[in-house]
From TrEMBL:
<feature type="transmembrane region" description="Helical">
    <location>
        <begin position="89"/>
        <end position="110"/>
    </location>
</feature>
<feature type="transmembrane region" description="Helical">
    <location>
        <begin position="35"/>
        <end position="53"/>
    </location>
</feature>
<keyword id="KW-0472">Membrane</keyword>
<keyword id="KW-0812">Transmembrane</keyword>
<feature type="transmembrane region" description="Helical">
    <location>
        <begin position="188"/>
        <end position="210"/>
    </location>
</feature>
<dbReference type="InterPro" id="IPR001851">
    <property type="entry name" value="ABC_transp_permease"/>
</dbReference>
<feature type="transmembrane region" description="Helical">
    <location>
        <begin position="266"/>
        <end position="284"/>
    </location>
</feature>
<keyword id="KW-1003">Cell membrane</keyword>
<feature type="transmembrane region" description="Helical">
    <location>
        <begin position="60"/>
        <end position="83"/>
    </location>
</feature>
<feature type="transmembrane region" description="Helical">
    <location>
        <begin position="142"/>
        <end position="158"/>
    </location>
</feature>
<feature type="transmembrane region" description="Helical">
    <location>
        <begin position="222"/>
        <end position="246"/>
    </location>
</feature>
<keyword id="KW-1133">Transmembrane helix</keyword>
<protein>
    <submittedName>
        <fullName>ABC transporter permease</fullName>
    </submittedName>
</protein>
<dbReference type="Pfam" id="PF02653">
    <property type="entry name" value="BPD_transp_2"/>
</dbReference>
Length: 306
């Protein structure tokens, strides 16, 4: 039972990175913007957050630095795509490549650095429960924040006027513009909010989940988070569940290795990415279902007056 509790706990921790990044990308796509630069953005946020935590000794400042890095890069991406109408796919890929190279260059000085002693987090009373205590109630607050974010984002999108406007911009920016809404500013705000969450995910990865800096440490999680939005049909709760599913697959490889399962480690390392491909292939078999849930203007540029 203790092994099951540890596997559940590891799944929640690993899924948190994907959940926060996926929710950020969902905000982008609900506004009609596709950002393929999540991988590079998370890498820059990871080194920014780690460097801030090393020099300040504060995890909170590290998270703030990671989020700030995410916002700055996302705003730059947004200005290019939304105002200058550059190709969003090419711009996103360029951002991803830039983030990988920049983080590797800056991170050279931090590969040998170590953070201060990590605090042990536990929910008083609940953490003492058998099995469930270790599985669910001994996590860093950011793990619970990811769950709260999914609930809050669902409420925002489907229960508030601002959320309705955001979805309207993603469905028909021309109609939203005709009603007097500043479509480009709304899209830029959505891109900034999504960048902040991707930045938080990157900072959590380097400060709490690892905690250390290694070149390329995001290791494809940005791409999996991007796939999650399609897997979840642009629904926050499904993003959360999908993140834990992929997190569980990731942790399963380590669990099988520890149990001495006679499978090549290379095959086990492929599991998260293989499952991503399989899920996307299965979803793609029903294009009508995807089209019914996908924001109608996703990836489509908007020019006022056209």
């Amino acid at each position: 039972m203790n092994e099951i509790a540890l596997l559940i706990a590891a799944t929640l921790s690993a899924g948190t990175v994907l959940a926060i990044a996926g929710l950020g990308l969902l905000i982008n796509e609900r506004a009609g913007i596709v950002n393929l630069g999540a991988e590079g953005l998370m890498l820059v946020a990871a080194i920014a957050g780690y460097a801030a935590a090393v020099h300040s000794g504060s995890d909170l400042l590290g998270f703030a630095a990671g989020m700030a890095a995410g916002v700055v890069l996302s705003l730059f991406f947004g200005l290019l795509v939304i105002w200058l109408n550059t190709n969003p796919y090419a711009t996103g890929l360029a951002l991803s490549l830039f983030g990988a190279g920049f983080s590797a260059f800056v991170g050279v000085a931090y590969t040998q650095q170590r953070l201060s002693e990590r605090s042990h987090w536990a929910v008083p009373g609940l953490s003492d429960l058998p099995v469930l205590g270790k599985a669910l109630f001994e996590h860093h607050p950011v793990v619970y924040l990811a769950m709260a974010l999914a609930v809050a984002l669902h409420f925002f999108l489907y229960r508030t006027r601002a959320g309705l406007v955001l979805r309207a911009v993603g469905e028909s920016p021309e109609s939203a513009h005709a009603l007097g809404y500043p479509v480009r500013k709304i899209r830029l705000a959505a891109v900034a909010a999504g960048g902040a969450l991707c930045g938080l995910a990157g900072a959590y990865l380097s400060i709490i989940y690892t905690p250390l800096w290694v070149e390329g440490m995001v290791a494809g999680k940005g791409w999996i988070a991007l796939a999650l939005t399609t897997f979840a049909t642009w629904r926050p709760a499904r993003v959360l569940l999908g993140a834990y599913l992929f997190g569980g697959v990731t942790m399963l490889q380590f669990h099988l290795q520890s149990e001495g399962v006679d499978i090549s480690s290379h095959w086990l390392s492929m599991l998260p990415y293989l499952s991503t491909i399989v899920v996307l292939v299965l979803i793609s078999r029903n294009p009508a279902w995807i089209k019914a849930n996908m924001p109608a203007s996703l990836g489509r540029p908007f020019k006022p007056g056209h």
